[in-house]
Structure formats: structure tokens, C-alpha cells
Amino acid sequence: MFTHLQGTSHQRTNARNEAPEGGFTLIELLVVIVILGVLSAIVVFSVRGINDKGQGSACKTDKSTIQTAEEAYFASDNRGTYATMAQLVEGGFLSNASSWYEVAPSGNTYAITPKTLPAGQANPCSGI
Is the distance from CB of 91 to CB of 81 less than 8 angstroms? Predict the structure, then answer.
């Protein structure tokens, strides 16, 4: 026997099963979170080295600028001598003194060395 009440209940069950899903399951959400975590870890590790490379390039450029200023000072009317950092700035060969390097002129030669910074500060150019 099939009653009217059983028929209505059967129709509701079928309608519920045929309706499209209204949201995501917990497993689907967890999979998306794991994928996003893996992608973010990849980005963090790939971007981490960019800052180090940029700092190294800045150090090399600063040193090269000082070398160019020393050669220009030497070639100018300065009796074939090299200059200190202060003389390079005063003479207009450098716009400002380097905060990373020191210049030690010695007659016909000069040495560009990384500065020793106060305790607790590391010079990023000390290894270059």
C-alpha cells in the first residue's frame, strides 16, 4: 500500500538528492588550504634570496663608484695622488661619503675596505 504521506516523503527525498550542492565539503576546504600553504611556502623561499642579491649589488656599485672617483681624482690636477673619502666629497668627486667603505690612500695606490661598524651592526659589504 502506498499512502499519500509516503509519496510526499519520497518526493522530498528525491528532490533533495537531485538539487545541486550548496557549498564545499570539509575535505575540499582542507585541500584548498593545504594547496595555498604549499604555494605560499614556495613564494617565501624564492623571494627570500632577492634581498640578499640586491644588497650585494648595492655594495658592488658603491665600491665601483668609489674606484671611479679615485681614478678621476688621480687624473685631475692633484699631483698624481689618491684621496681620502673626505677629499673625494669636498672635491665633488662623490656626492656623499660611503657608509659601507673606507678609503686608505697611500701615495700611488689606494685601498677600499669595508668599514667596521659599531657593535651589534653588521656591514653587509664585508664579504664582498
Answer: no
The amino acid occupying position 107 is G
* Alpha-carbon distances of 75 from 65, 82, 105, 123, 128, rounded to whole Å: 15, 9, 15, 31, 27
Tens of pLDDT, residue by residue over 13-30, are 555 556 566 788 999 999
Q: What is the distance of C-alpha 83 from the center of its chain?
A: 34
Q: Are 83 and 70 in contact (CB under 8 A)?
A: yes
Asked if 103 and 70 touch (Cβ cutoff 8 Å), the reply is yes
Q: Is the pTM of this model over 0.85?
A: no
| pLDDT tens for each residue of 105-114 | 887 788 988 8
The domain spans of the chain are: 51-128
